[in-house]
Amino acid sequence: MIRGRKTKWAIPILAIISIEIFYIIILITGSSISNVFWEGTYMPTLLSFIPLALILIIYFSWMKKWSFYGFNLQLKSESLVFFLPLILVIVILSNQDFSKESFLMTTFLIAYAILISFVLLGIFIGIVVTTLLPLGNIAAILASGILYSQDGWFLLLTGNNLTETSVHIVLCFLLGIVLAQVFVITRNLYPLFVFQSLFSLINTMGIESFNLWREGLVISFLAVTVIFLCFSIRKDESLVSRSFNESTL
């Protein structure tokens, strides 16, 4: 029995560790290639995330896992209320000026935001949460939030502004927690995908990259949302478990 429990925990954890190592290797490889051959603001991300996106598409399609990892069109009307906090986050972050770009550049930035969103949600929400959910909601949600915010830790290690980076880490961690919580409840990534795309686009096109009051307001709101969703998950824990089991059929 003890060995069975160890196996129950070991397999999902080893799977996530392997995915994370592969993700970091791809990021380092893309950044290295960009530094040698193509310099540019967007090239490191493109060279890393395009291969990751292709791998996800091939895997989800070949293994027929799109619905299993949350890319399904079934969304219950009563679940829509859980997406309202994310809409308010977009409204708060949109309260700034945006750079005026050409039509071609704007189209590129939209595609760029969609690419980032697909990879981040596909890996750190869809795969991570689904893989760890059998170990419990807390383990799945916390792991997802930590991994979702890891880019901030990379920035911190490279010597970026301590205050801005720290705020960015906290914001992304709480946002990752909220996204994971909403996914656990709804088992649907499409609304989260729309949100993440808008979130990435705002961060890319926003002129004011950092505003302590605005970021602080978002962090406070996300913290309250985390608490609210915790009670929702505990209240409907049997519903969440049943939703997960139905999605794996």
Automatic annotation (TrEMBL):
Residues that span the membrane, as ranges: 9-29, 41-60, 80-96, 102-121, 128-147, 167-185, 192-210, 216-233
Keywords: Membrane, Transmembrane, Transmembrane helix
Keyword Heme listed: no
Protein name (record): Uncharacterized protein
